[in-house]
């Protein structure tokens, strides 16, 4: 079992068919937060006052408060287990319509290239509760993209004006034979200025991907897959976008400076 979570997070983020323990008796949250395709942004979705229950099976509809058009229906199975002096509630999402999304942003899809198909398969596996498969797909994607991840951090280091010796130390990690060795070496040489909040993205990825799948349950692998995705997308998409934005800004400032000098000399 994974650690307990709120029923709101359970509906918003938890995959299908994966059991999880919650505090107390299961009750539907009044609202959830969810991306609305009609509104094009994250909105609040109140729950319907009309529930359908049949023994241990419960169903509820949630609709977008902003447009009143989009809706999602959840079907939840509940069971109760005695653990010493307490009764634990185990819940499982056995149905959801529309199905959990496997949509990825256009920017991430473009950056992933051929690996975008594997990424969607990782999301499908995760949404169906197959954590081991999700981790395996993500491991393959990171393996394919490790050199690019290292290049991104090298570009960021150069844009921040770090010494060339630091930059070359980062890029030298690509010379290692395996992707795990590349991540390990890169994690050891990343300067403190490139560690957001003191965290080391390459060190985190190395630790997550080095964890043996044969020792982990589906539920544990679900949590690991979510952590891998979060770190991978931060480095592969967010940092790359940040580099591109900084480059555009620098180019724009350079042009403005050149124009200003031209006016002064005229």
Unreliable segments (pLDDT under 50, ≥5 consecutive)?
Answer: none
Overall geometry comes to globular
Percent of residues in helices comes to: 40-55%
Please tally the helical runs, counting DSSP H or I stretches of 4 or more residues. Answer: 8
Q: Which CATH class of the largest domain applies here?
A: Mainly Alpha
CATH-derived topology of the largest domain: Four Helix Bundle (Hemerythrin (Met), subunit A)
Radius of gyration: 23 Å
- Going across the major beta sheet, what is the strand order? 1-7-6-5-4
Q: What structural category arises from helix and sheet content?
A: alpha+beta
- Using DSSP, what is the number of strands? 7
Number of domains: 2
Distance between the termini: 74 Å
Mean pLDDT across all amino acids: 86
Largest sheet: 5 strands, antiparallel
Topology:
Blueprint (H helix, E strand, L loop, with lengths): L6 H7 L6 E3 L8 E6 L4 E6 L5 E3 L2 E7 L7 E13 L2 E12 L8 H7 L3 H12 L3 H29 L4 H8 L7 H11 L11 H10 L7 H48 L1
Antiparallel strand pairs: 1-7, 2-3, 4-5, 5-6, 6-7
Helix pairs in contact: 3-4, 4-5, 4-6, 4-8, 6-7, 7-8
């Amino acid at each position: 079992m994974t650690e307990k979570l709120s029923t709101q997070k359970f509906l918003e983020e938890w995959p299908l068919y994966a059991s999880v323990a919650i505090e107390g008796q299961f009750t539907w949250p009044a609202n959830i937060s969810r991306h609305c395709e009609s509104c094009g942004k994250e909105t609040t979705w109140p729950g319907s006052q009309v529930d359908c229950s049949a023994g241990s099976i419960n169903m509820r509809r949630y609709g977008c408060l902003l447009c009143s058009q989009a809706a999602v229906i959840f079907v939840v199975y509940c069971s109760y287990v005695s653990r010493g002096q307490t009764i634990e509630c185990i819940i499982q999402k056995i149905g959801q319509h529309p199905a959990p999304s496997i949509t990825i942003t256009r920017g991430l899809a473009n950056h992933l290239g051929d690996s975008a198909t594997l990424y969607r398969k990782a999301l499908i596996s995760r949404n169906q509760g197959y954590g081991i498969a999700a981790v395996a797909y993500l491991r393959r994607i990171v393996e394919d993209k490790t050199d690019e991840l290292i290049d991104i951090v090298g570009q960021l280091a150069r844009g921040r004006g770090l010494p060339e010796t630091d930059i070359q130390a980062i890029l030298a990690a690509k010379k290692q034979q395996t992707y795990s060795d590349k991540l390990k070496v890169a994690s050891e040489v990343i300067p403190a200025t490139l560690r957001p909040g003191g965290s080391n993205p390459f060190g985190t990825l190395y630790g997550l991907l080095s964890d043996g799948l044969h020792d982990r349950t589906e539920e544990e692998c679900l949590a690991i897959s979510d952590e891998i995705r979060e770190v991978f997308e931060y480095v592969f998409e967010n940092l790359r976008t940040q580099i591109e934005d900084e480059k555009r800004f620098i180019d724009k400032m350079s042009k403005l400076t050149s124009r200003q000098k031209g006016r002064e000399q005229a």
